[in-house]
Design brief:
single chain, alpha/beta, TIM Barrel, 2 domains, eight-stranded parallel beta sheet, 15 helices, 45% helix
Length: 393
């Protein structure tokens, strides 16, 4: 029998110099010594526990690091396309086609404009759906953030447009601000089998209300929450710890702490609801949340994670070194969530009063700012559509 370490290849039934016959071909092996095997990077490690979602538009190219898995279409995305049409002609045409949509042509005034923006949003979402395997998070007009019935009506219109374009409802997440009214709209939509995505989440009560409503995805933004606490250092970050203005620097990262509690709560009591953490500013924050359902990570942090080696998988040629269990281990998991403890008041059904009281200073301020920011985006977009309509006449 020929040794498997042989580097020569012989065809079957070949006579060797020693007059033996090769019964079957032995292929050359691509052997790599253990010492040449590289270790896993921090990004590899993170992807072993969480789904990493690149925080980038499909219009941008970061595939060398991590290809987009899902996509978002919003007023901000439409505005970016219209302001920078160079190289985006396919997308611009998709928006312009919404102006000629017969359903919208039959309307006038604000109703016509709303119809055109919804149709343009779906046209771009349909294009994105061909480029990613995941879902398309589609914005519902944020000016309706405090009107439950209006949100439901616009959501139904968006879904009808997607259905007319043969895009399955399973591919769509309807993106709704995390107001009490927005969460109630999401509850009704979820009861009809329509997936929703609650954004602008800055307080634990928003997460509990959304999870109780059966929302598919909630998205806390830890970066904006941390910014708020840095702006107001006297606010207590941890009720069990010292105030920062008492002379002690708190080691509590309020954003990471909040996101971890949201994950544990959802996993323990409402596992249907997945937590997608955004606003990640550092590799430390990303690694601290390993195990959460989704991590939305920007290009700079992605690059840093992809370039940072770990001991995981490293082999010195003699033994495989163990990973650093203290640092490179999942911080969050369904098993650990079962052991998480919550106060009785955190488990009761969230009424509007409880919601408003539970938002806290940071939640009230950031939710208001977030909604206004989205409203500003759509109001900046409307003149483009008005000008396009004039040009079509």
């Amino acid at each position: 029998m020929l040794s498997l370490t042989s580097r020569k290849t012989y065809t079957c039934n070949t006579r060797l110099p020693d007059r033996r016959h090769v019964i079957c071909a032995v292929q050359k092996l691509d052997y790599r010594p253990p010492s040449s095997r590289t270790a896993a990077t921090e990004l590899d490690y993170l992807e072993g526990w969480s789904t990493v979602v690149p925080d980038t538009l499909l219009l941008q190219n970061i595939e060398k690091i991590e290809a987009p898995k899902a996509a978002t279409v919003s007023s901000a995305v439409l505005g970016g396309i219209l302001r920078n049409p160079a190289g985006l002609q396919e997308y611009k045409i998709a928006i312009e086609n919404a102006i000629n949509f017969d359903v919208c042509q039959a309307k006038t005034g604000a109703a016509k404009l709303a119809c055109e923006i919804d149709k343009a949003t779906v046209n771009i979402g349909a294009l994105f759906s061909k480029q990613v395997e995941g879902r398309i998070s589609t914005e519902v007009d944020p000016r309706l953030a405090y009107d439950t019935e209006a949100i439901i009506s616009r959501a139904e219109n968006l879904l009808k447009n997607y259905t007319d374009m043969d895009i399955s409802q399973d591919r769509i997440l309807l993106r709704v601000p995390g107001t009490f009214e927005g969460i109630q709209a999401a509850k009704e939509l979820e009861s009809r089998g329509i997936q929703t995505h609650i954004i602008l989440v800055y307080s634990f009560v928003q997460a509990t209300a959304a999870a109780q409503a059966g929302v598919s995805v909630i998205q806390p933004n830890i970066g904006r929450l941390d910014d708020w606490y840095h702006k107001y250092p006297g606010v207590i970050r941890d009720p069990k710890g010292p105030r920062e203005d008492s002379g002690f620097l708190s080691k509590v990262n309020p954003g990471v702490r909040m996101a971890a509690r949201m994950y544990n709560y959802c996993q323990k009591y409402h596992p249907k609801t997945k937590v997608m953490v955004s606003g990640i500013r550092s590799t430390k924050d990303a690694l601290a949340l390993a195990g959460v359902d989704y991590l939305v990570v920007g290009p700079k942090v992605l690059a840093a994670l992809a370039e940072a080696p770990t001991l995981q998988g490293y082999n010195d040629g003699l033994t495989t070194l163990p990973a650093d269990d203290e640092y490179y281990s999942p911080r969050l998991s369904p098993e650990a969530a079962k052991e998480a403890e919550f106060e009785d008041f955190e488990l009761q059904p969230v009424t509007k009063q409880i919601f408003e009281e539970g938002l806290g200073l940071a939640g009230v301020s950031l939710l208001k700012q977030g909604v206004q920011g989205l409203v500003d985006d759509i109001e900046r977009l409307e003149p483009f559509f008005q000008n396009l309509s004039v040009g079509q006449e």
